[in-house]
Structure formats: structure tokens, C-alpha cells
Design goal:
By secondary structure, the protein is an all-alpha fold. Among the domains are: 100 residues, Serine Threonine Protein Phosphatase 5, Tetratricopeptide repeat (Alpha Horseshoe), CATH 1.25.40.10; 48 residues. Helix 3 runs antiparallel to helix 4 and helix 6 packs antiparallel against helix 7. The longest helix has 53 residues. 31% of the residues are buried.
């Protein structure tokens, strides 16, 4: 009977009848409380209806019952991300990737977090990996999204022509300033030498005059 509830709930889920699906997942769990798939699917429904905390609880129970359920880690990561908890989201994506290194979506989602945190190099590598896996799996939609994200990062990291010109001009002005400072020090040293010579000449002349007076 619990399998009937699960199958009915899955069908309702696919038809986007989320409330009816939720009720049947509840019944499936009531009759068979160790059915990991029921908790996982109920977690998907709760996430969709924005009941994020309970969705995380369901994904966590599914993981306890079935530790290698990599999609439970992936969607728990998605849910943490939607709550703004990037460290926990990243940790779940990492675990999902550890269990399934061909999970392109996990690389893609982890790249998004890296990009938002300013870790552009890591984001680029994850997008690259996501694109490569998606291409091999013929997931054209994800492949195009990952390639587009890579291009955006490359564009972001390249300075604009105006910035380049400003940079060159700044370096040129800095060079002029350094040369000016250096020349200023040289001139200053010459002045000190001249002052010193003038002082010595004055003292010598003064001594000579004193000798004449004597």
C-alpha cells in the first residue's frame, strides 16, 4: 500500500499537484517510515512550496536512510543556497560531487556561489567542468548556460580599453613623478654641495683676511 501512495504522489508531483502529492507522501511515510525516496520527494515538494526548513529536514532524513543518495545532498544544497547559507550549500554540493563526479548541475550551482563570493577562478573552473559534463551527457541547455557563464567571467576579468589606457597613462605619470623626485633630490644635493662649498670658501676667505690683519 505504501508503494501505491508513493507512486500516486510521484504522479501528482509531475502534474504539479503539490498539495495532493504532499498528502500522499505523508501517507507513504506513515505506512513505511524508512522509505528514503518518500522523504526525498516530499522534500522536493516542500522546497517548491517554499517550506525550506522542513525540506532540509526531509532531505536529511533521506540521507540518513540512504547515505549515497547524491541528489538529496544536491537539493539540500539548493535549499541552503535559497536560504542564503552559502557554506552549507557548498558543503552539500561538494558531497554530491564526491558521490557522483558526473553531476554537472552540482558543479554549475557551486560555480554560482563562487562567483557571488568573488572567487572568479574557482567559478570559472566549475563552469568549465559543468559544461564539459553537460556536453558529454547531451544536456544542451545546461551546456549553453555554463559556456555563457564562462564567457561572462572572461569578459569581466578583461580590462576595458578605457581602463587599459588609464592604466598606461597612470604608469607614465608615475614614472614622470619618480624621475622628477629623483631629479629633485639630485638638485637638492647639488644645492647642498654648493652651500657647503660656499661655506668653506667663506671660512677660508675669512681665515685669510684674519691672517692679513695679523
Amino acid at each position: 500500500m505504501n508503494i501505491d501512495y508513493l507512486e500516486r504522489a510521484n504522479q501528482q508531483f509531475n502534474e504539479k499537484q503539490y498539495q495532493a502529492a504532499l498528502e500522499n507522501y505523508n501517507l507513504a511515510i506513515k505506512h513505511y517510515p524508512t522509505l528514503a525516496e518518500a522523504y526525498y520527494n516530499r522534500g522536493l515538494v516542500k522546497r517548491i512550496i517554499c517550506n525550506h526548513e522542513e525540506a532540509i529536514q526531509d532531505f536529511s532524513i533521506a540521507i540518513i536512510l540512504k547515505p549515497k543518495m547524491f541528489l538529496a545532498y544536491y537539493y539540500r544544497g539548493i535549499t541552503y543556497y535559497e536560504l542564503g547559507d552559502y557554506p552549507y550549500a557548498t558543503a552539500n554540493y561538494n558531497h554530491a560531487i564526491m558521490l557522483n563526479s558526473q553531476l554537472a548541475r552540482a558543479f554549475y550551482q557551486r560555480a554560482i556561489i563562487c562567483g557571488e563570493l568573488g572567487k572568479n577562478h574557482q567559478a570559472y573552473e566549475d563552469f568549465r567542468q559543468a559544461a564539459a559534463i553537460a556536453k558529454s551527457q547531451k544536456d544542451i541547455v545546461l551546456y549553453k548556460k555554463a559556456k555563457k557563464a564562462q564567457a561572462q567571467i572572461r569578459k569581466f576579468n578583461q580590462p576595458s580599453p578605457l581602463v587599459s589606457k588609464i592604466s598606461v597613462s597612470f604608469k607614465f605619470l608615475l614614472l614622470i613623478l619618480l624621475v622628477s623626485v629623483a631629479l629633485g633630490k639630485i638638485n637638492n644635493n647639488f644645492n647642498l654641495i654648493n652651500d657647503f662649498n660656499f661655506t668653506n670658501d667663506s671660512e677660508i676667505n675669512h681665515n685669510k683676511n684674519n691672517d692679513v690683519d695679523k
